[in-house]
Amino acid sequence: MVAGVNNSGAESSQRFALSAPRLDPESALLFVINASAGAIDVNSKRTVIETALAARGRKCELLTCEAGELPRVAAQAAIAAAARGTAVIAVGGDGSLNTVAQAAHAAGCAMGVIPYGTFNYFARTHGIPTEPAAAVRLLLDWRPMPVQVAAINDRVFLVNASLGAYPELLQDREAFKARFGRSRWVALLAACATLLRTRRRLRLRIDVGATFRDVKTLTLFVGNNRLQLQQFGAEPTNTLAGTPGDGTLAALMLRPISTLSMIGLMLHGAMGSLGEAAGVEGFEFENMVVKPTLAPGRRELMVAFDGEVALMRAPINIRVLDKPLYLLKATGAAGTADAPGVGA
C-alpha cells in the first residue's frame, strides 16, 4: 500500500505537537494499574515500576484498582495529571489502555503506556517496548506526541472497533483464556471456534460521506492500527489521503460464506493474506454512520472496541476524532510487525 500525501494532515500534526501539554519533571507520574488484568500479579507490576523509577530518582504514585473501578480511577488520575502538569500512565492490556485513553483524551493530559497485553498493537505501533521495565525507563526520556484516536459513538478506541461476529469472538476468547491460559495461540483457537459456528448476518445501511448502501455481512471490523492490518494482510487500497491510524480508518466487511470458505478465509488470515480472500471487502474512510436492521423493540446492538464488549444504541457513528491523544513516545517512533496474531 502506497501512503497517501496529506499536507494538511502534516500541518495539523505540527500544530498539535506545538500545543502538546507541558510536563513538570518534578511532578510525580500517575500510574493506573488494573489489578484484575493479565497473568502477572499486581505486586510484580508495582515492583517493576518502582525499581525503574528509583534508579532515575523520579517520583510516582501507583493507583491500583479492580476492573469495575478503573473508569473512575482513570478519570480522577487524568484530571489530576492535567492540573499538576504530569502524565497518567496506563499499565495493562488493550482494555485498560482504552479506559485510560478515554480519560486522558477528555482531560487533555499526556498519557504513557506500560504494556501487559497479549498483542500490544498500540504500544508496538508507537515504538513502545513490550518489555515493561524497558517501557518504564524510556518514559522519562520521551515527550508527548499527538497520535490519532477514533470513536465509536461516544467511546474512544485506539486499535479497532467492530460489530457482528468479532464481538462474539472476543467473548469466546475470554472464555478460552480462562480455561487454557493467555497466549496468542489460545486467542487464535478461540477465533477459529467463533468463525466456524457463526451464521448470524447483519443487515446494515452504511453512510460514508454523501454515499450510502445496504449490505449483509457477518462482521464489520474497523481498524485504527496499520500494524494489525498489515499482519492480517488486509490494508485497504489507498483511496484517501493518509493511512489507517494516520488520517483515516480502515473498514473490513465479511460477507456470509459457507463453512468450507470460512476455513479458507482463516488460512488466509493465518498467512497474512486476508485481503486476498474471496468474501472480504476493505475500504478507507474518515466518518461512517452504520444503521443496523434490528428486531422490533430493539434499539441497541453488541459492539467491541479495543477488546472490550458493550451494548450501544443505534445508529453507530464511527469516525476519526479531530482532537489527538498526547502519547509519551520518542519523536518519529514506529512499530514493527514482529509476530502474527488475532486480537484487539
From TrEMBL:
SUPFAM superfamilies in the record: NAD kinase/diacylglycerol kinase-like (SSF111331)
The DAGKc domain sits at: 24-156
Keyword list (alphabetical) reads:
Kinase, Transferase
Give a yes or no for keyword Glycoprotein in this entry: no
Name of one Pfam family that matches: DAGK_cat
Q: Which Gene3D superfamilies match?
A: 2.60.200.40, Probable inorganic polyphosphate/atp-NAD kinase, domain 1
Q: Name one GO molecular function term.
A: kinase activity
Which PROSITE patterns does the UniProt entry name for this protein?
A: DAGK (PS50146)
Q: Which InterPro entries match?
A: ATP-NAD_kinase_N, Diacylglycerol_kinase_cat_dom, Lipid_Phosphate_FormReg, NAD/diacylglycerol_kinase_sf
Q: Which PANTHER family match?
A: SPHINGOSINE KINASE (PTHR12358), SPHINGOSINE KINASE RELATED PROTEIN (PTHR12358:SF54)
Protein name, UniProt field: Putative diacylglycerol kinase catalytic domain
| UniProt source species | Rhodoferax antarcticus ANT.BR
Q: What is the lineage of its organism?
A: Bacteria, Pseudomonadati, Pseudomonadota, Betaproteobacteria, Burkholderiales
